[in-house]
Amino acid sequence: MYNYTLKHIKELEAESIFILREVFSQFDKPVILFSGGKDSLVVAHLARKAFYPAKIPFTFLHIDTGHNFPETMAFRDSVVEKFGVTLLVGSVQKSIDDGRVKEEKGINASRNILQTTTLLDTIEEENIDCAIGGARRDEEKARAKERFFSHRDEFGQWDPKNQRPELWNLFNARKNFGEHFRVFPISNWTEMDIWQYILSEEIEIPSLYKAHEREVVWRNDSWLPVSEFLNLRDGEKIEKKTIRFRTLGDITITGGIESTAVKMEDIVAEVAAERQTERGNRADDKRSETSMEDRKKEGYF
Amino acid sequence: MRFTTAGSVDDGKSTLIGRLLYDSKSIFEDQLESIRKTSDRMGLDHMELALLTDGLRDEREQGITIDVAYRYFATPKRKFIIADTPGHIQYTRNMITGASTANVALILIDARNGVVEQTSRHSFIASLLKIPHLIVCVNKMDLVDYKQEAFDKIVEQYSTFASKLEVKDIRFIPISALEGDNVVNRSEKTPWYEGATLLHELETMHIGSDQNHIDCRFAVQTVIRPHSEDHHDFRGYAGRIIGGVYKPGDEIIVLPSGYLSKIKSIYDYDKEVKEAFSPMSVTITLEDDIDVSRGDMIVRRNNQPSVGQEIEVMVCWMHEQGPRPKAKYIIRQTTNEAKAIIRDIKYKVDINTLHRLEEDKDIKMNDIFRAHIRVTKPLLFDSYKQNRNTGSIILVDEFTNETVAAGMII
C-alpha cells in the first residue's frame, strides 16, 4: 500500500501554485507586488514553479517609498534580472511631488500610509486588474479575515463585512470595469512555513535577514536602523549592534532584533523559539488596535 | 489538518479556539498583551480569548464573529489550519466558506441549551459538505456543574438528530472553553468522561483517506508553451490533480474532445516524477500533439466522469435576493465557466426536521434546496459524494458579479 499523503508544506505549495495559475487564467493584467522581502520572494519562487519552463507571466510592481534599505533595492533588481521579468515602480516621492499626498510630520513620521495612494494610482494608470500580494493570514488579525481572491471596488476599497463567499477551489474573479482584485496565494502559510520553505528550497534572501553589524537606536522596544531619514530624539544614542530583521518594510519603521544567526538553519531555530509576533517590530502596526484593518479598507497591501 | 468551528451564537466557538491556542502555547506574548489590554478596557475580569480571532473592529465592538478568521498552530504531531466561523444565521455563507475545505468540523453546543436551530443547520451543512469527521463539543460544562447527566442528555439528543445525517464519524467531548476543561488538558472535574481531550483527538485523527485516490481527475488550468530555445517544442498542461494517481505511460482520454493519448511525463516544477496524486499541482505532457485547453479534463479511459448539461444539485443560497425566475447565472465548476439556468426547484429542506418542503419553493438567503440546473455547455462532473472537487459548483450573478450560491452535485 502506497502512502499518498502530501507533507503540509507541499500541500501549501500546491495550493499556492493552483491559485497563481488561476490568476493567470482569469485576469488580463495581473502583477506581483514585489518588495524584495521574504514573502514576496516566496511568491515569486512559486510563480516560477507554476509556469516552468516558461517565464513568470506576471509583471512585478514595487511601490517605492524612497525610504528603503539600500540592500533591499540591490537585491530587488538582481531578482528581477534573474527571472527576466519587467519591473514597474510606483514612486511615493512622485505622488508627493504631484501633490497627490502630503508627507507626515513629526518624530515618528513615515511614508507607510502614503503608499496606498501610489499603489491605487499605479493600478489605475496601468490598467492592472489584479495585484498579487504576499500577505499571510497569520501576520495580523485583519489579514486573518482575507479571502484568497479579494474584491476591491472602483475606489480600491476592501469591505470586510461584505466579502464574497469563497468555496472549495472555485474562485470568482468577475468584476465591473474599474474594479480590481487582490489575490493572496500564500494566505495559509505561517511565518514558520515561509522560513522552512526558504531553507528547503534554498531561496536567496536579502542579507538583512541575517545577523550583521549595524548602527541602531533603541526605540519602541526594538533596534531601529540609523539612516538619513532618522531624527534622533533627546536621550537616544546611536549604538553598534549585531542584529537581524524578521520583516522588511521601510527603513524608518522596521526594527531589528539582536541575533547572531547567519545560517538559515539558525534563523529557522530562532523563529521557532520566538515569543513575539514578527510584526511586533513594525511601527506601522502599532499606531492603533485596528490600524491594519483601517489601512486595508482604504486599499493598502 | 484543516478544521472549522460551527454552532450557534454565543456557544463559545471563538473562545474555544482562543483556549486551544492559549493552552497549546501558540499565542505570542505581544498578542496576549494586546488582548489583555482590550479585555481591561472592555471592563472584563477575565481575558477575552475570543478577541484572538475576532479581528475586525465591528466584531470586537459587538463581541460577535461576522466573517471567517483563519488561525494557525502547530504541535509536534501536526500542523493545523483553523477556520473560525460565525454563528449568526445572517452570516451562514461565511460559515460555509470556512467549512468547504475542512477535514473536521467542531460542533459546539451550549450544555444548558442543547441542540438549537443553528446547531442543526450547521450540522446539516457540514454533512452536505461531506466533512468526514464531526467532533461535538458540549461546551460550558462549568455552568451545569460538570454533571454527566447534562452531557449524556445532549449526546442522546444530538445522536437522534444526527441519525438523519450522512456523517460516519461523530465524537463527543464535554468541555469548558472558558475554564479549559478537556480542551488541551484533561479535566479533573469530569472523572466520568473516559475519552480523549479535544487536542488529542485532533492530533491523532486519521485523515489520510479523505482524498479520493481512486478516480483520476485532472482539470487543465492553463497550457504552458515557453517558445524558448531550450524548450522549443514543450507543450505542458498545468493543473492540479483533483483525484487519483497519475503515472507516465498511463493511457488517457481528453474530455470533452475524446482524443486519446498517453502521458509522456509529469513535472513537479523542473523534476520529472514517477507518479503524482491529489492534491499536487503539476504539469503533464502527452505523447501526441493534440488540442487541449483550459477546462478540459485528462482522465483514464476506463474511469471517466459524467458529461452533461443537466445536473441535479443541492444548493445553498447565499444572497439577499432569491433566485430570479428564468435568470441566467454564471456557473463555475473545476476550471470551467458557462452559463446556467435554474430550471426547477424540487424541494426546500427544513433545517430542523430535515423534512423536504415540496410546496414551499420561496428561496431566501441561507435556504438549502434541491434544484435542476441546465448548463449551456457540457460539464465534466462526478457526484459531490464521490469527489468534492469535481462535484462542486458556484453560481455567480451575471450583473452584480456576486457569488450567490454554492452547490453540490447529486
Q: Tally the helices of chain B: what do you get?
A: 7
Element-level helix/strand string of chain B: EHHHEEHEHEHEHEEEEEEEEEEEEEEEE
Unreliable segments of chain B (pLDDT under 50, ≥5 consecutive)?
Answer: none
Strand order of the largest sheet of chain A: 3-2-1-4-6-5
Task: Kindly estimate the percentage of residues of chain A that lie in beta strands according to DSSP.
Answer: 15-25%
Mean pLDDT across residues of chain B: 91
CATH A-level architecture of the largest domain in chain A = 3-Layer(aba) Sandwich
Radius of gyration of chain B, rounded?
24 Å
Rounded average pLDDT of chain A: 90
**CATH fold-level label of the largest domain in chain A:** Rossmann fold
Reading off the top of the CATH hierarchy, the class of the largest domain in chain A is best stated as: Alpha Beta
Q: What characterizes the major β-sheet of chain A?
A: 6 strands, mixed
- Overall geometry of chain A: globular
Structural class by sheet pairing and helices of chain A: alpha/beta
CATH topology category name of the largest domain in chain B: Rossmann fold
Q: Kindly state the percentage of residues in helix of chain A.
A: 25-40%
Structure description:
The complex is a heterodimer of chains A (301) and B (410). Chain A is α/β, with parallel strands linked by helices and 301 residues long. Chain A has 2 domains: 8-193 and 289-298, 3-Layer(aba) Sandwich (Rossmann fold), CATH 3.40.50; 206-285, no CATH class. Chain A is 31% helix and 15% strand. Chain A has 8 helices and 10 strands. In chain A, the strands form 2 sheets. Chain A has a 6-stranded mixed sheet. In chain A, strands 8-7-9-10 form a 4-stranded antiparallel sheet, with no helix packed on it. The model of chain B has no long low-confidence stretch (mean pLDDT 91). Chain B is built from 7 helices and 22 strands. With 410 residues, chain B is an alpha+beta fold. The radius of gyration of chain B is 24 Å and the shape is globular. Chain B has 3 domains: 2-210, P-loop containing nucleotide triphosphate hydrolases (Rossmann fold, 3-Layer(aba) Sandwich); 217-300, Beta Barrel (Elongation Factor Tu (Ef-tu), domain 3), CATH 2.40.30.10; 306-409, Elongation Factor Tu (Ef-tu), domain 3, CATH 2.40.30.10. The longest helix of chain B has 15 residues, at 148-162. Chain B has a 6-stranded mixed sheet, with helices on both faces. At the A-B interface, helix 1 and helix 2 of A face helix 2, helix 3, strand 2, helix 4 and strand 7 of B.
